[in-house]
Amino acid sequence: MQGALRQLVNSASRLLSECHSHALSHTHTLDPKFVTQQVIQCAYDIAKGAKVLVTHFHLAIPIDQ
């Protein structure tokens, strides 16, 4: 679970950094396709970490029948 939390936090920080760097770049020298791919990868990594956490907590909570 620690790994999933770490992945979630690191990916969110990376996404924030990518977006912030691009927003502050006045010349926008980076290729828009590259920036878009980086943002998509960050979002995908966040989703993977969230899925692990949801699965962990879902399995930890007993379901009354």
Automatic annotation (TrEMBL):
Q: Name one GO biological process term.
A: synaptic vesicle recycling
- Xref: Pfam families: GIT1_C (PF12205)
Q: Which GO terms describe its molecular function?
A: GTPase activator activity; small GTPase binding
Boundaries of each ARF GTPase-activating protein GIT1 C-terminal domain copy? 3-58
Under what name is this protein listed? ARF GTPase-activating protein GIT2
> Which InterPro entries does the record cross-reference, listed alphabetically?
GIT-like, GIT1_C
Q: Name one GO cellular component term.
A: presynapse
